[in-house]
Amino acid sequence: MFTGLVESKVPLVGLRECGPGKRLIFNLGAFAQGVCIGDSIALAGCCLTVVEIGGDFPETCCHFELGSETLSKTSFGRIQVGDEVNCERSLQVGQRLGGHYVTGHVDGLGQVTAVRDEGEWRFIEFSASKNLLQQMAPKGSVTIDGVSLTLVRADDGGFSVALIPHTLSVTTLGKLTVGSQVHLETDILAKYVARQIASLAERNLTI
Fold it and tell me: What is the predicted pLDDT for the residue at 94?
């Protein structure tokens, strides 16, 4: 479980083909301290498991293996060495929850449709599939590339968020341009509500 509060931007330093999947090696820098094999780490909002530390790379580098299912649902199939992603280690019991509950399971991809600056703030609009948009509501929460954000607008035509200068500087969202693809995870509570409504509809019941 994660919070959507990014700890660092980390670079991809190695990429290897592994049958139908890939092995990605990221340099976590100081955040690699205390990380063990088997730990879960959110990279660009996708929960991945550490399978090796160091190896042919410095001890601050962690290896992750991605199967064909993960590659098909994320943008990691197109990632290149040198690209940076948002990084967050898993939430520990007793820690403060500053964002919202994030599972690290990417629901799908969104695409930037517009970028507008207002002073140091930036408003970004996105398109997404209909089923994901139905799980969003204004002032609700959404995770974009691992960043917990509050929705400004959410309707059948898309959604938008407002980014403060701090978020623009410490996450990869500051580099988004029109056409950029991002990982999306909707609020877990919205998923349960949507599932209940669908179940009632199947039985021709009303709330």
Answer: 63
